[in-house]
Amino acid sequence: MHFAFMDDSARAAKDVPRRGLGPLHAYGAVIFPQNAVQPYREHLAQLRRDLKIPVGTEFKWSPDGGPLHKKWNDVHIARVRMLEDAAALGVRACVVVCAPELMSGWTEEQLKSEMLEYLYERVTYAFGEEQGVLIADQPGGGRGDETRWLSDALALDTDGTQYVKPENKQILLPIVTTRSDHVDHLQLADLVVAATTALIAGASAGDRYRDLIRAVLVKNSRNHVGGQGLKFIPSVVRNPRALMNLAHWVFGDDGYVIPGTGASLEPDLPWGNWLYSSGDGLGTPAPSPAGALPAAAEV
């Protein structure tokens, strides 16, 4: 039995140094074996004692109040401990990162639905032969936004996806939501998704957590995170705007395997038909493949 905990993260264009991306939005989940759920709660309780902060203090990537507000050394200690403890307990993670400006013609609602579907599939793959449940932090926005989100989540349970059929699904219930200040494991999801988004954005805030994030991301048989623990929108089927080369520049992937098939789509990364084929977009600007959208202004 597994328990997956889901959260989202976003970065405005001004906070995305990597050229050609624009704003980013991400969904992600951390996946706990059943026997790791209670020990992780105990680890976070000990972490609060060690940091001398009140019981129930919420760990957030960007604490905007409370005992950890602007105490960046303590925040860093907490981030490292949370990720190290998660890896030691066998927790794994999947993150879907979307660059909306590269998806011309798609509405925000369509993109969020696509992201949720991709994450649902990757959590299912990570469960393997076992079953589990998926618990999400309460969506932001108004009541209408939450209702639409829950409708999309319910559709996944009843209809499945192209690759996860209802009769074969391992996620046993519709996605349920709760508050992250009530469930410690959602706070780890916040950290993993925000740190991964920062790394894809090229923001220096994520650099010191690169190896820790890679340690928990789901990997395929060739030790690649791309396509398995890390999914991009635009995806590979929407060449030449696909972002898969960022799996190389950020996490060191040297190839890409199609999830669920074991088939190699292209043996070597970076690949010339995708964005960031000859640079990471942080140093010398990487040329865009033919047909790609113009690069966004540097920020």
Structure in a nutshell:
By secondary structure, this protein is α/β, with parallel strands linked by helices. The chain has seven helices and eight strands; from the N terminus they run ββααβαβαβααβαββ.
Give structural notes.
Helix content is 34%, strand content 15%. It has a six-stranded mixed beta sheet. Helix 1 (37-51) runs antiparallel to helix 2 and helix 2 runs parallel beside helix 6. Strand 7 and strand 8 (264-266) form a beta hairpin. It has 299 residues and is an alpha/beta fold. The protein is globular.
Question: What's the arrangement of secondary structure elements?
Answer:
Elements: E1 2-11, E2 24-33, H1 37-51, H2 72-88, E3 92-98, H3 108-127, E4 132-137, H4 143-159, E5 176-178, H5 184-201, H6 210-216, E6 230-233, H7 245-251, E7 256-257, E8 264-266
Helix pairs in contact: 1-2, 2-6, 3-4
Assembly state (oligomeric): single chain
Number of helices, counting only DSSP H or I runs of 4 residues or more: 7
Number of strands: 8
Which bin fits the share of residues in helices?
A: 25-40%
Order of helices and strands: EEHHEHEHEHHEHEE
Specify the structural class: alpha/beta
The value of Rg in angstroms is 18 Å
N-end to C-end Cα span: 44 Å
Q: Residue ranges: pLDDT <50 for 5 or more in a row? A: 290-299
Biggest sheet: strands side by side, in what order? 5-4-1-2-3-6
| Strand fraction | 15-25%
Instruction: Look at the structure and give the mean pLDDT.
Output: 88
**Outline, from the CA principal axes?**
globular
Please give the largest β-sheet. 6 strands, mixed
